[in-house]
Amino acid sequence: MGEEIRITAADGGTFAGYLALPARTPAPGLIVLPEIFNSNPHIRSVADGYAADGFVALAPDVYWRQEAGSYLPYTDEGRAQAQALSARLNTDQFTCDLGDAVAALRTRPDCTGKVGVMGFCLGGLLAWLASTRLPIDAAVSYYGVKIDPHLGEADRLGCPLLMHFAENDPHVPPETVAAIQARLGGLSSVSIHIYPGTGHGFNRKGYPPYDEAAATEARQRTIAHFRRLLS
């Protein structure tokens, strides 16, 4: 089990982050960014899992400027609230806040100073923006939504990037994945994987449309990516 810490933003505001520590420190830092449901118990369990694998894992409150502490359940009501909050989210502003979280994590005594960023759905978009805008060492994007409008930033990609996509994903349809592959697929620093027969959210253990085989394979690739680049 982790603990909640406070992170100071550049404008002086503070926001919460769920911090999970590995058994041995100092260790590489890893920011875990959520789906539109924010850093709810599932995402915190993901952070716990990466802490168990040797990372100082931090899952921030993405909606702190809109409605702090809104960690939402996978219900119809939770989804409606999540969609409303997501619509109000300024991704450029939060990417700046994410930079403050990266800096805070990097300077912790229990962190080696190397930091990676990973995210799911909305968090997958934010992980992409982190890879082009922030000084991080590695990034992983799981079925990131609305990445295609930001592909113009590809020339600013500053770290190795691993991307996971579902084959049957209405939120990231095949034509969107094809556009991403066309722009990024030829870059030696980018690896893109598509998981056959899976849907959006295939990594969400305990909730549909979880796919154990795909989630396991994607996680193995993710762990290898981060261990290679953050060790």
Question: Can you lay out the helices and strands and say which pair or pack?
Answer:
Layout (H helix, E strand, L loop, with lengths): L2 E6 L5 E7 L6 E7 L7 H12 L3 E5 L3 H4 L8 H13 L2 H16 L4 E10 L1 H12 L4 E5 L18 E8 L5 H11 L5 E10 L12 H19 L1
Parallel strand pairs: 3-4, 3-5, 5-6, 6-7, 7-8
Antiparallel strand pairs: 1-2, 2-4
Name its key features.
single chain; 231 residues; alpha/beta; Rossmann fold; eight-stranded mixed beta sheet; 7 helices; globular
Explain this structure to me?
With 231 residues, this protein is an alpha/beta fold. It has a single domain (3-230), classed as 3-Layer(aba) Sandwich (Rossmann fold), CATH 3.40.50. The chain contains 7 helices and 8 strands; from the N terminus they run βββαβαααβαββαβα. An 8-stranded mixed beta sheet has the order 1-2-4-3-5-6-7-8, sandwiched between helices. α4 (91-106) crosses α5. The chain starts with a strand and ends with a helix.
Q: Using only CA atoms, what is the Rg?
A: 16 Å
Give the end-to-end Cα distance, rounded to a whole number of Å.
Answer: 24 Å
Strand content: 25-35%
How would you sum up the major sheet? Answer: 8 strands, mixed
What's the β-strand tally? 8
Q: How are the strands of the largest sheet arranged? A: 1-2-4-3-5-6-7-8
SSE string, helices as H and strands as E: EEEHEHHHEHEEHEH
Mean of residue pLDDT?
97
Task: Find the CATH superfamily.
Answer: Alpha/Beta hydrolase fold, catalytic domain
Q: Look at the helices and sheets and give the structural class.
A: alpha/beta
Uncertain ranges: none
Shape: globular
Query: Can you tell me the CATH topology?
Result: Rossmann fold
What is the CATH-assigned architecture? 3-Layer(aba) Sandwich
User: Treating each run of at least 4 consecutive H or I residues as one helix, how many helices?
Assistant: 7
CATH class: Alpha Beta
**What is the number of domains?**
1
Helix share, percent:
25-40%
